[in-house]
Amino acid sequence: MKTELHYYDIFPKVFPAGKEVTITIKPLGYHADFETPDKIALCIYGLEDGNPRDYPYRGNGIEIPFDFDGCIRFTHTFPKEQQYFVRIMDKDSGKRLLQLSVYALAEDLCGRYPLIGDLHMHTCRSDGRQCPAVVCANYRKHGYDFFAITDHNRYYPSLEAIETYKDVPIEFNICTGEEVHLPDLAPDHINDVHIVNFGGKYSVNAILLDEHTEEFGNDIDKRRFEGFPCPDQLTEDEYRAEVDALAATLDIPEGIEPFTYASCVWVFNHIKKAEGLGIFCHPYWISNVYQVPESLTDYMLKTRPFDAFEVLGGENYYEQNGLQTHKYYEIKAQGYDFPIVGSTDSHSSVNNENAYVASTMVFSPANECEAIIDSIKKYYSIAIDGISKEYRLVGDFRLAKYANFLLKEYFPLHDDLCYEEGRAMKDYACGVEGAKETLEFISGRIKKQREKYFAF
Q: How far apart are CA 6 and CA 133, in angstroms?
């Protein structure tokens, strides 16, 4: 966390551009008090407006009057969307004493709050290590606002996680999910493209009799969310016939396997019917060689049967995330566009160097599954590459500038609160006495913090 965030609180941090806003700077402890307010000046600098020495006509360095009651309070209209520095200067020497940051937003982003999430990870219900409830708690401890458990072939682990915490107030949004793998029907009816059903209200895996139904039978409430209409189950022959019929309606070029592509379309169509987000995952994952043939990757990205592309995933070698990022920008430059997400694809939430290598920041009006899916579909998301200490952002340049500000100026404070809730969630999941009371006591703190820092 930046030293300034330990010493001073500035709020609100984010507000509409072009509208008057009153901002408070509060010392956090008497060691940070402003002892001689009559000898300081408060100046505003737009980060994008150039050095005031060279571009004085752009208004950088304008001095703002302020009130003082132990805190500094000032009212100002920030003219356009960008990050602004609020600098406290010594009047006599001209020396900078303190610099804090705020951000003014254009109208379309106002009312959209930044949420960090993961849309793809695993538990011990498939090939992960911890149980669903503990994975939830560990992710919350790391500052995540939302996520979905997406175990291979299985939807019910995400329902299990939701069920665990249904009787306690938490501000962590646990969504439904699964990684979809449908049966290979040799020799020419194969599909190993990895697809995530994020937030879908029924299981695509469980449409066929497979691991999901072998473990939990045909209980319809294990393959759908809150009574959502669920499709009839199919035999493998019925599935093959449906996909073959769909392939016959698609103009699939030579060199692209008809069944493979059509079965992807079939899965994505079901995810849409389930009101979920269909994610095309990690084509540059090295599973012997690249998991998906590059010509098929190109065709998928250009025809876009999916809702979002997992541009960043859970491996820390260059070929996966590096090449997926290059591919995204290359295809985009050719005139194709689609929403993107970043996910860990984690198989352990502790002691795993790949556990938090990627995430998604979504700008959503609410931390609710439907709102998050809608916001991603409307391109209000950006992927965060956390492989190295110095993170990288993939996506829209405008959102990257805003996300960079948030990762430095807002999320360190947000994450402090998340850690406490995550610890209490783990205690609750493990049956520790008093955990429920702790969660009830701290409930609502993230909401209050959000209302404090975002003046929407």
A: 32
| 3-state SS class at 122 | coil
The answer to whether 22 and 77 have CB atoms below 8 angstroms apart is no
Distance CA 283, CA 341 (A): 14
Q: Which residues pair with 45 in a beta bridge?
A: 85
| The Cα angle at residue 231 between residues 225 and 234, in degrees rounded to 5 | 125
- Encoded amino acid at 180, one letter: V
Distance CA 421, CA 413 (A): 14
- In angstroms, the CA 26 to CA 101 distance is 14
Burial 167-179 (b: 16+ CB within 10 A, else e): ebebbbbbbbbbb
Say what angle helices 411-429 and 132-141 make with each other, to 10 degrees.
150
CB 158 within 8 A of CB 225: no
| Structure tokens belonging to residue 56 | 């004085």
Entry pTM = 0.96
Per-residue model confidence as pLDDT tens for the chain (456 residues): 889 999 999 999 999 999 999 999 999 999 999 988 999 999 999 999 999 889 988 889 999 999 999 999 999 999 999 999 999 999 999 999 999 999 999 999 999 999 999 999 999 999 999 999 999 999 999 999 999 999 999 999 999 999 999 999 999 999 999 999 988 887 778 889 999 999 999 999 999 976 666 777 778 999 999 999 999 999 999 999 999 999 999 999 999 999 999 999 999 999 999 999 999 999 999 999 999 999 999 999 999 999 999 999 988 889 999 999 999 999 999 999 999 999 999 999 987 777 678 999 999 999 999 999 999 999 999 999 998 888 999 999 999 999 999 999 999 999 999 999 999 999 999 999 999 999 999 999 999 999 999 999
Total residues found in the chain within this entry: 456
Q: Give the separation between CA 266 and CA 281, rounded to whole angstroms.
A: 16
CA dihedral in degrees (56, 59, 61, 64; nearest 10)? Answer: 150
Both structure tokens of 361? 């920041």
Q: Which of 160, 131, 148 is nearest to 426 (CA)?
A: 131
Contact 408, 130 (CB under 8 A): no
Rounded Cα gap, residues 203 and 408, in angstroms: 38
| Residue 269: strand, helix, or coil | helix
Q: For the chain, first and last CA: distance in Å? A: 25
